[in-house]
Amino acid sequence: MRYHVHHDTEYQYDSIVTLSQQMLYMTPRNSFAQYCEQHLLTIYPAPTERVQHIDYFKNYSEYIAVFTPHDLLKVTSSFTISLQRRPEHSELQQSLAWDEVAYRLANEHGMHLEAASYLYTSPKIICSQALAEYALPSFWPGRPLIESIFDLNQRIFQEFEFDPDATDVSTPLEQVLQGRRGVCQDFAHLMIGCLRSLGLAARYVSGYILTNPPEGEPRMIGADASHAWISVYSLKYGWIDFDPTNNCLVQNEHITVAWGRDFSDVSPMRGVVLGGGGQTLKVSVTVTPMPLVNTYTA
Fold this sequence. Notes:
It is globular, with a radius of gyration of 20 Å. The longest helix has 15 residues, at 145-159. Helix 3 crosses helix 6. The protein has two domains: 2-83 and 267-289, Immunoglobulin-like, CATH 2.60.40; 89-264, C8orf32 fold (Roll). With 298 residues, the protein is α+β, with helices and mostly antiparallel strands. Strands 1, 2, 3, 4, 5, 13 and 14 form a seven-stranded antiparallel β-sheet that branches. Strands 11-10-9-8-12 form a five-stranded antiparallel β-sheet. A two-stranded parallel ribbon has the order 6-7. The chain contains seven helices and 14 strands. Strand 6, helix 5 (173-179) and strand 7 form a beta-alpha-beta unit.
């Protein structure tokens, strides 16, 4: 699959901002599953300082500072990306038992360094007995890891209601567990918390998902949204991505931008401003399928 993504983020302030400093995570990663063909990040007003770097998790991030007085800050990320085939459910049938994976992650020190950062409590995900107890009906002793995760993924989809008014970025995970409502960020945090509370390694993935319009209706510009899902570490298959919001194994409609321990590591845009008073945020995302490029040469 091949897509073009256009993501607008616009802050309108009630009064003049004299300084804005922001950290941006809007440049998509390259990995075995995807390749970014081109990317353009435009900012208005033009930043006085602009520094690109790669963070601890090997995400692309960008620091900007705007010293020009302004009452509008607009950031536009536009890119074309091609996705590669991922393993299907039928190809993931030979995973080790989940409890063996947890035991080896805990005891084979130094052998699974890639997973080590994603085993423990993080700023937005506090491991707990309550999360472990919620997960355990899917994780009986000796059950294969991938089968257990599919079951947990399905349970979260069935037992939690998508409700954009129920939570915000500061809502504690225990409140999400009790209320059984939230958005994709909440469900990703919940599933990660469940897995880490059982000793498994799971990371938070931010990006986009293709939103299919009802049959016969045109795709609406700006109707898509940024999205979040999870990736779990399997000793046999490496990292495998699951989407509890949509009850699916991630395949060819998910576009990865960044990953980390939780949302706080990879928020698309965060920072501080001097002045401004109140603010209004507008976000618009459009994901458009593109023709495949034939790279074959004789």
